[in-house]
Design brief:
The protein is built from eleven helices and eight strands. With 313 residues, the chain is an alpha+beta fold. The protein folds into two domains: 115 residues, Immunoglobulin-like (Sandwich); 188 residues, no CATH class. Helix 10 packs across helix 11. It is elongated, with a radius of gyration of 27 Å. The termini are far apart.
Length: 313
């Protein structure tokens, strides 16, 4: 009994010591963030030794997903009060991934480890904004142009087509993600991606076709052959392929598909607004129809280039 009590007391003491050391290691850093493209900013809760903080040998930095690849630190800047350190790296950092920073002998702690990452909610919003504006699939990647030019002549048709397209792409990409994660990847069937994704899109379009035929026949007739063309739309195939190549989880996949659908809706509405005005304008005969539509689309594409490099989070 005495031995059991002694061992219990010993483990309790070791637990308290271990907890204290972890708390101290975690307490030396008050905040972390990404600075420029190749910088990590570390804010310490109290001043640290500037000589130790400025020595690259006291830092080990790597991406959480690749712990064996150490990132090379090119320079270190320490603030006057010793509470902030800026690590500059030789190459640009992928700020969408979590980075791990290990410090040695800094802040009175023999060794500490902490992570640097952006807000996950901000990351999701950045995926949405990127697909919606920055990397709009129509105006920056020039995908889905057949449906774009065919259904962008009237606002009502454009809005209806944009909403239907968004619903189809969100549903089909969600099903694609489930099959990719739980069937294609585990059984090494990645080479069937395109076939499976096209099949799921066809199934979703057929379901929407049946529902629209019963619920809103007028809107169904206004789409004509273009609803069927959604099956072969480049955007609706590109999104699941992009999801698979980037290994997105479901929330990231949902934001990507929602942004792609919203971007297509935005492109259709903008083009239809201009098309209705162009019909009343004095356009030279040789430019009427598709030529002037291409010119307008090109001007929109040039305008959307202004969003290049935009970072909100």
């Amino acid at each position: 009994m005495n031995q059991i009590k002694y061992l219990t007391f010993l483990f309790a003491v070791l637990g308290v010591i271990g907890f204290s050391s972890v708390g101290q290691a975690a307490g030396i850093v008050s905040d972390t963030d990404f600075g420029a493209d190749n910088e990590i900013v570390i804010d310490f809760s109290s001043p640290v030794d500037k000589n130790k903080a400025a020595d690259p040998k006291n830092y080990i930095v790597f991406e959480e997903s690749d712990p064996d690849i150490r990132l090379s630190i090119s320079s270190i800047t320490v603030s006057e009060d010793g509470k902030q350190v800026v690590l500059s790296f030789a190459d640009s950092l992928n700020s969408s991934k979590t980075h791990i920073v290990n410090t040695i002998g800094i802040g009175g702690v023999e060794q500490s480890s902490f992570s640097v990452s952006k807000s996950y909610f901000g990351y999701l919003i950045s995926i949405l904004i990127s697909a919606l504006l920055i990397n709009n699939f129509v105006f920056t990647k020039y995908l889905g142009l057949c449906v774009f030019f065919g259904t962008s002549k009237r606002k009502e048709t454009a809005k209806g087509m944009g909403v239907v397209f968004t619903i189809v792409i969100v549903v089909s990409v969600s099903m694609s993600w489930v099959l990719y994660q739980y069937v294609l990847k585990p059984y090494s069937l990645d080479y069937l991606q395109i076939v499976i994704f096209i099949g799921l899109t066809s199934l979703t379009v057929q379901a929407v076709d049946t529902v629209l035929r019963k619920v809103n026949p007028v809107l169904f007739k206004s789409f004509g052959v273009y609803l069927v063309l959604v099956i072969a739309n480049c955007v609706i195939i590109a999104v699941p392929l992009l999801m698979a190549s980037n290994e997105y989880n479901y929330f990231e996949t949902f934001m990507l598909s929602l942004g792609a659908g919203g971007g297509f809706l935005l492109a259709l509405y903008l083009m239809s607004s201009v098309s209705e005005r162009v019909e009343l304008a004095k356009v030279p005969p040789s430019f009427k129809g598709l030529p002037i539509a291409f010119i307008v689309a090109g001007q929109f594409a040039m305008a959307f280039l202004g969003f290049s490099g935009l970072k909100l989070f």
